[in-house]
Design goal:
The chain has helices at about 20-60, 60-80, 85-100, 105-130, 130-140, 150-160, 165-180, 185-190, 190-205, 215-240, 255-285, 290-325, 330-355, 360-365, 375-385, 390-405, 410-435, 435-465, 470-500, 505-530, 535-555. By secondary structure, it is an all-alpha fold.
């Protein structure tokens, strides 16, 4: 299957549909998620390189703390637009317009959303620039105790605010391409953000002091350039589909009103999330220099499997969920959600166990050089250990929330989000007193699991089940296999630490590769013995992709 080859309906019933065995549907979902995952992998690897570069240049010092807090303010929009309420509301509505009324009317809706978001976010950017000082002080008042740290945070906030508009527009373009079942280019677009930041770090950091700016200014410039790159990469692909931009805004468009109606509760949910973020940020900034950066580095490592697996599976499943909901085919929705959850567990349960067992070697290999010290490694690894269980919760939410939006129910995810926020804030206020900054990571992980569990229980009631027996059996088998994998990795890692020097980069690399390799072998053996179908399905998808690549490389026979 070519990178942008469309995917067809499978496992559906109803007029004009093709009845295909469920297994075929699972294989197609796995291939779709694999296609997105392969593009996402490029972006995530570049993201690690970006974080390595930032850790080398700035460590976990005051400049990095200031950048992380400053970037959180414009990056709030990503929760709403890039992977949140806007995408979940836009894709089903756009897909329905595309299916029922054709491309021309769908393009009209796309233009209306682009122009509306451009206008709204433009106003927010201007307001944010004007009010950056009190806004930043609200998040990081304790920074005022360090000379120049709060002022630097305010300056960086103002510089990065235009990213808000760019990422919102890029998310709309991504939604249109995903509705057309073009997944590869949208999934690859975040790589442009990482490329821009890496290039800015390498090329501009040495120049900034000579121009009279702090060196960290170069990274803020890279953020804005990266937002522009995300939009620029996707635009040609959308034009090839026939889209042409038009500068008009029809507020009476029923599709636009439907999207705004669905986004309304999502925006309330975002406000609740920001209360949580506000509390966590204030608590983290109060834990001293480095705490914000340690948590940020650890969260990025934890989020790598979510981006590769959770978001990939959810993105591939959303158009199918939207079509099934439009046709009132709850059976198809149940099959899609069940397949997505089983694939997610197969990929993310072992990933969570691996992150917990190998937290220190992973952080040491990736970050410990330059200004990032051994103390930073220990602190970041401790945060990663506490974050890792939340990987399952975050990934499951990525699958559950689109199911509600496909049913045109935005209130339920928002209500549960508010409840999860309350759980998170309560836990963090208690745990930070006992565990320090690590308590913030653990509280966040527990709240994510609570959020996912509650959403899935409610969605199960709406859909009449998830093929429960098969899902429970899969979870039991995957949990057993992942536990065996974790034990094998722990034993191999301990033996290597006792007998194999790992001071050099290559020594650390071989050590980690050997530990991971032992885990993969033990997982494969356990999956074979337990008959875990999802493991075989994932492996087959990888083999099929390599086979297609070999055929493409060999050319015509």
């Amino acid at each position: 299957m070519a990178a942008d080859e469309p995917l067809h309906d499978v496992g559906r019933t109803g007029p004009g549909s093709t009845v295909t065995p469920i297994r075929s549907g699972g294989a197609r979902l796995a291939r779709s998620a694999g296609l997105i995952g392969s593009a996402t992998l490029v972006s995530r690897v570049l993201g690690l390189v970006r974080d390595q570069t930032l850790a080398y240049l700035f460590g976990a010092g005051n400049a990095m703390d200031a950048f992380n807090v400053a970037f959180r303010i414009p990056n709030l929009v990503r929760d709403l637009f890039a992977e949140g309420a806007m995408t979940a509301a836009f894709v089903p509505t756009f897909t329905k317009r595309l299916t029922i009324d054709g491309r021309e009317r769908a393009w009209n809706l796309g233009n209306a959303v682009l122009n509306a978001l451009g206008l709204v976010t433009g106003v927010l950017v201007v307001a944010g620039i004007v009010g950056a000082e009190p806004l930043t002080a609200l998040f990081a008042a304790s920074y005022a105790g360090v000379p120049g740290k709060l002022e630097l945070t305010v300056f960086l906030t103002r510089l990065m605010l235009p990213f808000l508009t760019l990422v919102a527009l890029a998310a709309v373009v991504m939604g249109m391409l995903n509705s057309l079942e073009r997944f590869f280019v949208p999934a690859l677009s975040p790589a442009m953000f990482n490329v821009a930041m890496i290039a800015s770090a390498v090329l501009l950091v040495p120049l900034m002091p000579a121009l009279g700016f702090p060196a960290i200014t170069a990274i803020a410039v890279g953020v804005v350039a990266g937002g522009l790159g995300q939009l620029a990469l996707q635009w040609p692909a959308l034009r090839r589909e026939g889209f042409r931009y038009e500068a008009h805004l029809d507020l009476k468009d029923p599709g636009l009103r439907e999207i705004l109606t669905l986004m309304g509760p999502g925006t309330i949910g975002l406000a609740a999330t920001q209360v949580n973020l506000f509390v966590n940020t204030v608590l983290a900034t109060g834990e001293g220099t480095g705490a914000v950066s340690w948590l940020n580095y650890a969260f990025r490592l934890m989020y790598l499997p979510i981006g590769l697996f959770g978001v990939s599976i959810a993105t591939a499943a959303l158009p199918s969920l939207a079509r099934d909901a439009a046709r009132d085919q709850l059976v198809g929705m149940r099959e899609t959600v069940s397949r997505g959850l089983r694939l997610m567990m197969m990929l993310n349960v072992p990933a969570a166990v691996g992150l917990m067992v190998l937290a220190s070697p992973i952080v040491r290999l990736i970050f410990e050089r330059g200004r990032f010290t051994a103390e930073d490694t220990a602190a970041t690894a401790a945060a990663l250990l506490c974050y890792a269980p939340g990987l399952l919760g975050y990934s499951a939410v990525k699958i559950a929330v689109p199911g509600f939006y496909a049913l045109h129910d935005a209130r339920t995810p928002v209500t549960i989000s508010i409840a999860s926020m309350a759980v998170n804030v309560s836990l963090n206020l208690m745990l930070v007193r006992v565990m320090g900054y690590r308590g913030l990571a653990l509280g966040t992980a527990v709240a994510a699991i609570f959020n996912a569990t509650t959403l899935l229980w409610l969605l199960r009631r709406r859909l009449g089940g998830f093929d429960d027996r098969r899902l429970a059996v899969a979870l039991g088998k995957i949990g057993t296999a992942a536990g065996g994998m974790g034990l094998a990795v722990w034993l191999v890692d301990g033996a290597l630490q006792a007998s194999w020097p790992t001071a050099s980069f290559w020594g650390q690399s071989l050590h980690l590769l050997a530990s991971i390799g032992s885990g993969i072998v033990s997982l494969a053996i356990a999956a074979r013995l337990l008959g875990i179908q999802e493991f075989a399905l994932a492996c087959q998808g990888i083999m099929d992709r390599f086979a297609r690549r070999r055929r493409a490389d060999s050319g015509p026979v």
